[in-house]
Task: inverse folding
């Protein structure tokens, strides 16, 4: 156990607030004085020459410049030495003081940038629209809600995100899907034919309700008493005129007592429809909160409702809409009659519903169309009109004004199609398809100034900036306001930009940022398909997965809307729950219904995202918790302290578990960590992980595991002690600078679509500096990312630049 | 997920039974007119399994024709005379060789390329062209699709993939170029439509669109050229990739136009929804491949039984832990073995299906070569030697089958590929880390 004492000290480094960045005393000469002798003494006996261990020849770096030209390699060296994993146990190990000096010097050197030179803003590889961006862009360009990209192959990930230029490739398969999608789209943008593209219905038994439940619910229908409402959500693919078709009936004099089960339907006979019967009740129809109209409904029952339908037309935009049906008394009732009914509501006339059907669009009617859609429909076969229409579409689809040459080409293409026998409409649609499979649409081209007019670093053009902004915050194309600001060259003004960030974050489209950034950073997308052993956890179903995800997304969303300090992510004493989740968490206060609402956690052991069911489940195995995974997740995902990977071929918990299967997990893991170079990382990782052992593999609180009481106390290297998860979380919050720096780095990665490089350090420093005073509030962080140099500038050199010595 | 529909069951039952037999017909007419029989073409395919296999239950006994199956490969008994078991194949480039952990990413990446994957979490993915694509460039010219890439699991949509390797390595085995994977289709419906064209009226409209598509693609090709000047090197690589895909589609369109439409009865078209369970999914994919070969819609396929490092829970086998997790737990050999045997059983079922399809004077199995293999040997140790390998089919009578080949330790898997390419009429001096040919496979 020779190495164990220094190891503890190094661990203190691993989990101590990093103050290194404040002091940038980079001393290149120390490389020869401090590092080279260290390498000679502890490293090069294995790491040299052609046969070097791990292919790492440390003799190749005689000068500090050579070392700095290989930053990636030296990051790995730093990681190993810092964690105490190298030198290995059987080799002589350096004392703690030396190790500390070496680690500090390396950290300083590897993040050093020459303050006298202009900072390198980096260069982003051309980004292809990912699936989300593709769908959102079409949604906002044409006002449709089509999810065409769901047919595309899944986007590859880089740095944990699906918007990284370097890994977003195009295969023939994807190309074929682009063609398919553009063809489907142009067909749908034309006025609908006799068979409308959308036709969907929800049966009465599946209609949802709020407040007082409807009576006599059954598979075949529901009866609404006064004051009740049922609803169904429909996703309308296009804007336009739709129709609602209700299979409904009225019950003038309900039976005094409800029969509570479905027997009623079995006995029900078809009653003859009386064409002269008077309506006994009305259906009030709403789309979301907007009243669409009233349908007077005649007497009948669930059987006759099929034959007696009620239709109402309405105009609506594409997207999700809640179609509501409310009970309404007939207009000719006097207030006295209504009052009498309301005194005995169960005996008042009822509105029966067997089905709500929505179909359309029948026409585009007077729905508001986007400029691009309107242009497509308005285009006439004369040259000028055609050109204007194509321009209106291309300018937006390509997110910058199309050039004269490009418009010439598009017009020419359209003519060619007509010449080979296509009608004007067909030719126009083909031209729109060409616009949409063009690299100008599929890629986010940011453009460069002319070669003779550019320095090494140049600010991004106005339109490129508008797109960076809109794809960062909305995962979609710029809106008319951003386009206008870009056209007026006002967007580069920091005050204008900051105001736009605020405006855009208030827009519902910014949900894309919550789902895209936080969903991927925290791993929430995985919650919907994380493997859980259903035999051990029968309660873990689709609903719970969706609840877990909703909880965390709503929580994050509220942090941004409130512009809360980022540490709230870790220690907030509130969350968002519905009845099911509150019960699952064992909350004392009753919460009713499936809607989520903000709930205080003050009287519970839960705090922040680390105690959300989503994160606790994601960091567990299908059948048990994994303190190692949980600890590793905290270090890697939240603090950016990625421990070096474990050596190959280490069986997890292998020997111990087999030998002593009945020991508690904590004991097993302790026995397992006999090797000092394992202990180095696992001491920290496992200590954090065990701090959350009170939460089982699907995030429920527990006091025992396999009959053993849970011990969630622990001590981190460096001496910080905790007795329970809440105290551990407070200790983690003391590393606020590391957490924020990592968060800002992740955000910058997502915003830029490239990995964070050493030269981004000054940008990150600045983001931290400017947000520190107000407690690192979320919107401030987002705004400062947008105002940072890597976001606003680009390097013009065409070749990727290898890291150069300072 | 919906429950399987009637049409899907019909599809499963119907394949190999009631579809037209192009080569049988071609032979009948060709032989009568020209007097020489038409020889069915050679087809090649590679199936990939992740997480290795438990060696103790895999290693067969004996040698040559005199061998005994072990527990995990026992399901091959049913097709014994048509398979060649190969022991001691290795994939050295799947080893760390200085790159540290990441055995799973390298496993999938190396399997068909024999190349050390560049370790990167995002930037500069670099591997090598895979053997199926080398062969497809040649064999693929004569079919509707040059090659078919199938899988069952979507590319992982979240998180760091295996120790700093990009997820691209764990979800692809077929690579068109060192930087570009071929992409994997996991939807049976979409695979069908690509293979045979959309049937019925829908299909007629689809074919009418071919010309339109060509115009559109012509147009974007010329627009792309205009863009190139204002881009950096990495950006130009992206556009080159784009143009490459455009050209491939153009070629496919040209090919489809030159080929008679495939008359596949529409009831064989799988449902649009994903299959409800893994077993159905696997079988649908295998059936599609058999149908594709039978109809000569493609001659080359790769199929990922699951992605590298899959943590799939095989609940159909009564297993409760994830596959990858099991390889890291001691005492789980029996569970792992069930998965291994299941993998082999489904492969054997596919081979039997190929054997049931008459073609020429024999069966489809006589004219193909299907390999079951991986880049990993035993998943518990994450090693890359003694990789379980089965080659099924007779490649037009050149591969006898019914044998166990005991090779020299550490024989590169790529030697097998060189020989397979040779059987397909391609002389490769070297492929990946090959050191020669695997002459033992042939007579």
Result:
């Amino acid at each position: 156990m020779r190495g164990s004492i220094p190891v503890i000290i190094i661990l203190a480094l691993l989990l101590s607030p990093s103050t290194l960045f404040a002091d940038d005393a980079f001393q290149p000469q120390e490389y020869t004085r401090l590092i080279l002798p260290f390498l000679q003494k502890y490293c090069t006996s294995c790491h040299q020459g052609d046969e070097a261990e791990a292919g790492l020849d440390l003799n190749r770096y005689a000068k500090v410049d050579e070392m700095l030209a290989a930053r990636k390699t030296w990051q790995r060296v730093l990681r190993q030495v810092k964690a105490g994993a190298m030198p290995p146990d059987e080799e002589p190990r350096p004392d703690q003081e030396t190790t500390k000096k070496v680690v500090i010097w390396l950290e300083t050197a590897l993040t050093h940038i020459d303050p006298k030179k202009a900072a390198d803003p980096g260069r982003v590889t051309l980004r292809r629209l990912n699936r989300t961006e593709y769908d959102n862009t079409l949604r906002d360009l044409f006002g449709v809600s089509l999810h065409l990209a769901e047919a595309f192959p899944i986007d590859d990930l880089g740095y944990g995100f699906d918007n990284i230029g370097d890994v977003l490739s195009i295969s023939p398969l994807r190309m074929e899907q682009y063609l398919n999608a553009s063809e489907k789209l142009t067909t749908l943008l034309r006025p609908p034919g006799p068979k409308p593209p959308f036709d969907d219905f929800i049966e009465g038994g599946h209609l949802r309700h709020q407040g007082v439940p409807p009576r006599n619910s059954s598979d075949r229908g529901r009866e609404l008493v006064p004051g009740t409402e049922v609803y169904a959500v429909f996703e309308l693919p296009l804007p336009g005129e739709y129709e609602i078709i209700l299979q409904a009936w009225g019950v003038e004099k309900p039976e005094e007592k409800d029969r509570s089960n479905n027997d009623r339907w079995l006995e029900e006979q078809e009653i003859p429809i009386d064409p002269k019967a008077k309506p006994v009740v009305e259906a009030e129809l709403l789309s979301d909160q907007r009243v669409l109209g009233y349908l007077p409904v005649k007497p009948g029952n669930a059987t006759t409702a099929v034959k007696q339908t009620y239709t109402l037309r309405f105009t609506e935009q594409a997207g999700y809409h809640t179609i509501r049906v409310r009970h309404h008394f007939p207009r000719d009732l006097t207030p006295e009659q209504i009052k009498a009914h309301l005194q005995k509501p169960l005996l008042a006339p009822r509105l029966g519903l067997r089905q709500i059907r929505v179909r359309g669009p029948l026409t585009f009617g007077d729905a508001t169309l986007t400029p691009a859609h309107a242009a497509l429909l308005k285009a006439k076969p004369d040259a000028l009109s055609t050109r204007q229409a194509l321009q209106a579409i291309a300018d937006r689809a390509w997110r910058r004004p199309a050039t004269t040459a490009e418009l010439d080409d598009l017009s020419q293409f359209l003519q060619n199609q007509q010449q080979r026998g296509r009608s004007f409409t067909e030719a126009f649609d083909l031209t729109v398809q060409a616009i949409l499979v063009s690299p100008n649409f599929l890629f986010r081209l940011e453009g460069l100034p002319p070669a003779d007019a550019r320095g090494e670093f140049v600010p991004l053009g106005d339109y490129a900036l508008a797109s960076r902004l809109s794809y960062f915050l909305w995962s979609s194309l710029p809106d008319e306001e951003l386009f206008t600001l870009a056209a007026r060259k006002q967007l580069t003004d920091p005050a204008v930009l900051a105001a736009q960030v605020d405006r855009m974050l208030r827009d519902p489209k910014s949900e894309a940022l919550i789902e895209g950034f936080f969903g991927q950073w925290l791993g929430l997308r995985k919650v919907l398909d994380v493997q859980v052993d259903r035999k051990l956890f029968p309660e873990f179903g689709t609903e719970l997965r969706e609840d877990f995800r909703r909880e965390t997304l709503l929580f994050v969303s509220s942090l941004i809307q409130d512009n809360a300090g980022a540490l709230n992510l870790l220690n907030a004493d509130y969350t968002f729950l519905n009845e099911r989740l509150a019960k699952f968490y064992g909350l004392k206060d009753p919460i009713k219904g499936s809607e989520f609402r903000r709930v205080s956690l003050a009287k519970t052991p839960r705090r922040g995202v680390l105690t959300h069911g989503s994160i606790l489940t994601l960091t567990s195995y299908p059948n048990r918790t994994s303190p190692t995974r949980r600890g590793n997740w905290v270090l890697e995902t939240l603090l950016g302290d990625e421990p070096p990977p474990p050596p190959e071929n280490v069986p997890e918990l292998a020997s111990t578990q087999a030998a002593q299967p009945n020991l508690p997990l904590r004991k097993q893991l302790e026995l397992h960590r006999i090797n000092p170079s394992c202990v180095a990382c696992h001491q920290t990782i496992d200590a954090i992980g065990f701090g959350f052992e009170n939460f089982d593999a699907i995030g429920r609180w527990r006091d025992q595991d396999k009959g053993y009481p849970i011990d969630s106390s622990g001590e981190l290297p460096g001496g910080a002690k905790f007795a329970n998860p809440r105290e551990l979380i407070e200790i983690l919050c003391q590393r606020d600078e590391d957490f924020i720096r990592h968060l800002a780095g992740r955000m910058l990665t997502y915003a830029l679509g490239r990995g964070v490089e050493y030269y981004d350090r000054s940008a990150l420093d600045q983001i931290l500096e400017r947000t520190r005073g107000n407690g690192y509030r979320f919107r401030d962080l987002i705004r400062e990312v947008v105002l940072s140099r890597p976001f606003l500038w680009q390097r013009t050199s065409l070749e990727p630049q290898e890291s150069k010595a300072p | 997920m919906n429950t399987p529909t009637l049409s899907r069951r019909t599809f499963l039952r119907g394949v190999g039974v009631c579809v037209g037999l192009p080569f049988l017909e071609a032979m009948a007419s060709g032989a009568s007119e020209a007097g020489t029989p038409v020889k069915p073409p050679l087809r090649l395919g590679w199936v990939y399994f992740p997480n290795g296999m438990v060696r103790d239950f895999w290693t067969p006994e004996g040698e040559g024709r005199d061998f005994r199956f072990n527990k995990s490969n026992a399901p091959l008994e049913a097709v014994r005379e048509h398979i060649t078991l190969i022991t001691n194949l290795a994939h050295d480039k799947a080893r760390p060789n200085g790159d540290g952990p990441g055995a799973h990413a390298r496993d999938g990446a190396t399997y068909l390329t024999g190349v050390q994957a560049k370790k990167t979490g995002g930037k500069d993915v670099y591997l090598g062209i895979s053997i199926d694509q080398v062969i497809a460039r040649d064999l693929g010219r004569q079919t509707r699709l040059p090659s078919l890439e199938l899988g069952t699991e979507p590319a992982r949509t979240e998180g760091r993939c295996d120790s700093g390797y990009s997820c691209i390595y764990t979800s692809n085995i077929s690579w068109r170029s060192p930087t570009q994977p071929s992409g994997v289709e996991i939807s049976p419906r979409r695979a069908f439509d690509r293979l045979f064209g959309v049937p019925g009226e829908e299909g007629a409209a689809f074919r009418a669109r071919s010309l339109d598509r060509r115009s559109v693609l012509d147009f974007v090709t010329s627009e792309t050229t205009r863009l190139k000047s204002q881009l950096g090197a990495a950006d130009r690589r992206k556009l080159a990739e784009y143009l490459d895909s455009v050209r491939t589609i153009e070629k496919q369109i040209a090919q489809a136009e030159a080929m008679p439409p495939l008359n596949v009865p529409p009831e064989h078209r799988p449902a649009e929804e994903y299959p409800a369970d893994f077993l159905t999914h696997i079988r649908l994919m295998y059936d599609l491949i058999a149908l594709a070969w039978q109809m000569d819609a493609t001659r080359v396929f790769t199929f990922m039984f699951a992605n590298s490092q899959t943590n799939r829970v095989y609940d159909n086998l009564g297993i409760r832990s994830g596959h990858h997790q099991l390889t890291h737990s001691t005492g789980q050999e029996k569970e792992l073995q069930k998965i291994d045997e299941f993998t082999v059983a489904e492969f054997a079922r596919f081979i039997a299906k190929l054997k049931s399809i008459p073609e020429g004077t024999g069966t489809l199995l006589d004219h193909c070569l299907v390999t079951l293999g991986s880049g990993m040997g035993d998943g518990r140790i994450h090693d890359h030697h003694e990789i379980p390998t089965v080659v099924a089919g007779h490649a037009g009578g050149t591969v006898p089958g019914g044998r166990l080949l005991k090779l020299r330790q550490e024989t590169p898997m790529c030697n097998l590929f060189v020989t397979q390419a040779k059987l397909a009429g391609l002389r490769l001096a070297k492929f990946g880390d090959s050191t020669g040919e695997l002459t033992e496979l042939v007579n």
Q: What stands out?
A: Confidence is low (pLDDT under 50) at residues 1-35 of chain B. Chain B has two domains: 6-197+266-441, 198-261.
